[in-house]
């Protein structure tokens, strides 16, 4: 199975991804090394002669906890509601461990189910989408069970969730993996008894650069128009007509639309405020959970010896 | 516009009028003075003789430039006309060589640098003083025109401008009205007269004349006649500076604003009686008070009502006939007139 | 509800941003809109003060502000920012101006980088609002003369004096009242 192979992916990465990776190296050592990172920035400043701006290390939390950022649409903004929601989210996070995961990671989620045997239900799958903000944050897991594709959408802060476990922490080349629905089933098949893979401390989150193969058409969406990086055989299934239309539908100016970007993001100043508010609690939870995890790792070998 | 109704029987008028050899009605006196002023101005222009050129370095918006003007003929107003209409309308005073404040209608005498100042310059101290002084001047003209022919109006003097006192004033002698208290209606009429005068956008002309001519022009006004010698003495060249609005001529040291349309919101607020000491030669004067704002100043009606209420109180400026309530002092009196 | 994008970090603009973009009618659609705005932004960077219709000015202003903010944040060694400047500035010498003139000018400013003022409308014209759009710190003489806070202005002198007098009367009244109270107390 191609998914089992985890290559070193440095050759294929684009510049942006490289930048992201560097950020993550900084990020994974975040709890201990915030101040060194800061001084590093200060050293750079006089050399370039430019004011260092976006180097607030707390801002890197936006990748781990994106649901703490509100919807940028001014129609839905309400500072009081956002604050209350953040407080609720922190309360929930104090109860259960919601780990760091990304689209492309493989998760196991256990939920309460009154009709199941043992009153719990465990589902394993690859996260194909993560969206929503605040208490409405949600993610979708996909797996193939008995040759039948299954997708389950979970609310991240749903009280029926008993535990979320990351079996394999990694990212894919795209931000959404809906194309797995039209891909060959082996790309979204994961065994339910997978063992969790533990990454050593301080390593960046690896990016899995596997390129899936799509089934022949019909498809659920026009994948050829979405500029997907994680699909290898899209051109095989296209007709001349599709190629022409793809050319017509291209919007090369969109990436220069500065205001479109602006309207989709939360500015640095607002983010700093938000992260400043939740930083301490998130930090404490992170540190305490790491301690527990270390103890567990040390404790497990003993019964085997005995 | 309705003029103030101030009837007096002719017999009473005759009795109260001080005996003077040459009697002139107020109107005739104004006409005569204006005529003399024009003649003298014409004569002075003719005396200039050969026209010499001077260079005026203009500094300010839209850009610095050099204008070649006529010595003793061209005024800063003429320079402004070379720039834009906005300059002619909004300039209040000219600043020569960065130090001397010059009337807009006073001919330039030498090469100089020229800056035009309006009400919104960063340091409008001198501009404000000129504005307040001009308001007093126009108040005198307005009071002269407002009364009927049967009422003799003898302008006395106005003190130097003090804006913090809250009102500009003119002390006027009304010999035929010994005990006059203006009604609200009459004050409104005076204000309306003032507004009419200011809306005419008349230039305020300046002229320096000799003492004899000044005495000749103010022959029927005994107050001014008394003040003129001391004013002439206090001036370095022994001349008397006259200003003319419309056809009303008055004595003042200046400088004055460019034209009357620069006076915006204005009200004549009150008339107070000043009583003289037994020694002084004038028994009583009327102090006309008003308050005004430059054109273009937008002030909330409430704030303006505060200013009006304050301007209704008697202005604490020294009374020319009873300074500090002490026995009148001739030198004092002359000084006040000289500073006006 | 959607989630905020996290791949890009932007600094907050100091101007009011309408919740939606304007469509700016153009036969070429959204691309035509961008081309129009590029022309305006280029003109603004070139002349530093331009007069145009309000809608277009307001829309172009947002893009100009964003471009300057990006240039300040990333500097001239950042490739995406350079591409962005290359797209928005049709005359290439203006790219140098952006990084070498405008960035040092606005680096430490706490206000918006541009200023938008209403311009007088010609008397017989279409019902369009005219606007003057300018970069702050341009070499031209200022367009507005806001000096209402100058204490030397005539109206301010008059109001200050009135305020002073009012306070003096109040203090005098208070002093009188105190005197009265003291007189009353011994009698009581």
From TrEMBL, chain A:
Going by the UniProt record, its keywords in alphabetical order are: Mitochondrion, Ribonucleoprotein, Ribosomal protein, Transit peptide
What highest taxon heads this organism's lineage? Eukaryota
GO MF terms listed in the record are:
structural constituent of ribosome
Q: Where in the cell is it found?
A: Mitochondrion
Where is it found, in Gene Ontology cellular component terms? mitochondrial large ribosomal subunit
Q: Which InterPro entries match?
A: Ribosomal_bL19, Ribosomal_bL19_sf, Translation_prot_SH3-like_sf
**GO biological processes:** translation
Q: Which Pfam families match?
A: Ribosomal_L19
Q: Which family does it belong to?
A: Belongs to the bacterial ribosomal protein bL19 family.
Q: What is this protein called?
A: Large ribosomal subunit protein bL19m
From TrEMBL, chain B:
Ranges for region Disordered: 318-340
Specify whether Protein biosynthesis is a keyword of the entry. yes
* Keyword Protein biosynthesis belongs to the record: yes
Q: Which InterPro entries match?
A: Beta-grasp_dom_sf, Thr/Ala-tRNA-synth_IIc_edit
GO biological process, any: threonyl-tRNA aminoacylation
Per UniProt, the ranges with Basic and acidic residues bias are: 329-340
The name on file for this protein is TGS domain-containing protein
Phylogenetic classification of the source organism:
Eukaryota, Metazoa, Ecdysozoa, Arthropoda, Hexapoda
Task: Please name the source species.
Answer: Leptidea sinapis
Which is one Gene Ontology cellular component term of this protein? mitochondrion
What residue range is the signal peptide? none
What terms describe the molecular function in GO for this protein?
nucleotide binding; threonine-tRNA ligase activity
Instruction: Write the record's keywords in alphabetical order, separated by commas.
Output: Protein biosynthesis
UniProtKB/TrEMBL annotation, chain C:
Which terms under GO biological process does the entry name?
translation
Respond yes or no to whether keyword Amino-acid biosynthesis is given for this record: no
GO CC, one annotated term: mitochondrial large ribosomal subunit
| Any one Gene Ontology molecular-function term assigned to this protein's record | structural constituent of ribosome
Question: Which Pfam family name is an example for this entry?
Answer: Ribosomal_L17
> Per the UniProt record, which residue ranges are transmembrane?
none
Task: Name the Gene3D superfamilies on file.
Answer: Ribosomal protein L17
Keywords in UniProt for this one? Ribonucleoprotein, Ribosomal protein
Q: Which SUPFAM superfamilies match?
A: Prokaryotic ribosomal protein L17
Q: Which family does it belong to?
A: Belongs to the bacterial ribosomal protein bL17 family.
**What name does this protein carry?**
Large ribosomal subunit protein bL17m
């Amino acid at each position: 199975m191609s998914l089992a192979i985890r290559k070193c992916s440095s050759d294929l990465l684009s510049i942006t991804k490289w930048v992201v990776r560097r950020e993550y190296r900084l990020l994974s050592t975040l709890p201990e090394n915030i101040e060194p990172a800061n001084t590093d920035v200060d050293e750079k400043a006089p050399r370039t002669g430019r004011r260092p701006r976006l180097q607030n290390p707390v801002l890197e939390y936006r990748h781990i906890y994106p649901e703490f950022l509100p919807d940028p649409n001014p129609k839905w903004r309400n500072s009081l509601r956002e604050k209350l929601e953040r407080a609720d989210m922190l309360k929930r996070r104090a109860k259960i461990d919601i780990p760091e995961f990304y689209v492309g990671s493989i998760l196991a989620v256990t939920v309460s189910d009154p009709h199941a045997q043992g009153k719990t239900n465990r589902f394993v799958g690859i996260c194909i989408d993560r969206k929503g903000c605040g208490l409405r944050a949600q993610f979708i897991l996909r797996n193939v069970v008995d040759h039948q594709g299954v997708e389950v959408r979970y609310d991240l802060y749903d009280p029926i969730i008993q535990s979320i476990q990351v079996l394999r922490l990694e990212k894919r080349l795209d931000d959404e993996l809906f194309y797995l629905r039209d891909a060959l089933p082996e790309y979204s098949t994961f065994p339910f008894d997978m063992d969790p893979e533990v990454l050593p401390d301080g390593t960046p989150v690896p990016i899995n650069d596997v390129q899936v193969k799509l089934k022949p058409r019909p498809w659920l969406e026009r994948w050829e128009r979405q500029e997907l990086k994680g699909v290898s055989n899209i051109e095989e299934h296209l007709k001349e007509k599709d190629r022409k239309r793809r050319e017509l539908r291209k919007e090369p100016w969109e990436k220069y639309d500065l205001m479109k970007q602006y309207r989709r993001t939360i500015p640095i100043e607002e983010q700093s405020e938000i992260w400043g508010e939740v930083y301490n609690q998130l930090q404490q939870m992170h540190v305490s959970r790491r301690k527990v995890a270390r103890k567990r790792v040390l404790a497990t070998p003993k019964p085997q010896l005995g | 516009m309705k003029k103030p109704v101030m009837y007096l029987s002719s017999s009473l008028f005759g009795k109260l009028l001080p005996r003077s050899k040459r009697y002139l009605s107020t109107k005739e006196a104004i006409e005569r003075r204006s005529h003399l002023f024009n003649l003298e101005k014409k004569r002075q222009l003719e005396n200039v003789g050969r026209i010499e050129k001077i260079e005026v370095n203009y500094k300010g918006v839209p850009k610095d430039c050099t204008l070649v003007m006529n010595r003793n003929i061209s005024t800063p107003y003429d320079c402004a006309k070379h720039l834009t209409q906005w300059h002619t309308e909004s300039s209040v005073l000219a600043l020569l060589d960065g130090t001397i404040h010059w009337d807009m209608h006073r001919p330039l005498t030498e090469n100089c640098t020229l800056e035009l100042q309006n009400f919104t310059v960063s340091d409008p101290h001198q501009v404000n003083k000129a504005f307040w002084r001009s308001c007093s001047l126009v108040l005198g003209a307005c009071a002269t025109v407002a009364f009927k022919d049967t009422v003799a109006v003898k302008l006395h003097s106005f003190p130097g401008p003090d804006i913090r006192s809250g009102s500009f004033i003119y002390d006027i002698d009304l010999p035929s009205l010994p005990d006059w208290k203006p009604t609200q209606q009459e004050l409104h009429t005076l204000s309306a007269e003032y507004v009419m005068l200011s809306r005419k956008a008349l230039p305020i002309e300046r002229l320096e004349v000799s003492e004899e001519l000044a005495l000749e022009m103010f022959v029927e006004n005994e107050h001014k006649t008394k003040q003129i010698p001391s004013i002439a003495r206090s001036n370095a060249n022994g001349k008397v500076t006259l200003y003319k609005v419309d056809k009303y001529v008055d004595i003042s040291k200046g400088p004055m604003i460019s034209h009357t349309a620069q006076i915006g919101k204005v009200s004549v607020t009150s008339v107070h009686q000043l009583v003289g000491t037994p020694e002084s030669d004038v028994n009583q004067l009327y102090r006309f008070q008003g308050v005004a704002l430059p054109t273009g100043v937008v002030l909330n009606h409430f704030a303006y009502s505060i200013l009006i209420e304050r301007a209704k109180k008697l202005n604490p400026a020294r009374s020319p006939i009873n300074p500090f309530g002490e026995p009148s002092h001739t030198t004092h009196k002359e000084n006040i007139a000289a500073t006006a | 509800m959607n989630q905020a994008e996290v791949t890009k970090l932007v600094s907050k603009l100091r101007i009011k941003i309408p919740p939606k973009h304007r469509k700016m009618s153009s036969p070429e659609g959204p691309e035509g809109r961008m081309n129009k705005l590029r022309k305006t932004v280029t003109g603004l960077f070139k002349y530093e003060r331009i007069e145009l219709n309000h809608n277009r000015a307001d829309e172009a202003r947002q893009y100009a502000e964003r471009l300057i903010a990006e240039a300040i944040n990333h500097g001239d060694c950042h490739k995406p920012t350079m591409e962005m400047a290359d797209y928005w500035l049709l005359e290439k010498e203006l790219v140098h101006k952006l990084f070498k003139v405008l960035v040092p000018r606005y680096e430490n400013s706490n206000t918006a980088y541009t200023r938008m003022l209403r311009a007088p409308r010609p008397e017989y014209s279409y019902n369009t609002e005219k606007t003057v759009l300018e970069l702050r710190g341009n070499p031209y003489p200022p367009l507005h003369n806001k000096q209402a806070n100058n204490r030397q202005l005539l109206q301010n002198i008059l109001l200050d004096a009135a305020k002073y007098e009012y306070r003096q009367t109040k203090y005098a009244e208070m002093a009188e009242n105190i005197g009265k109270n003291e007189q009353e107390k011994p009698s009581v």
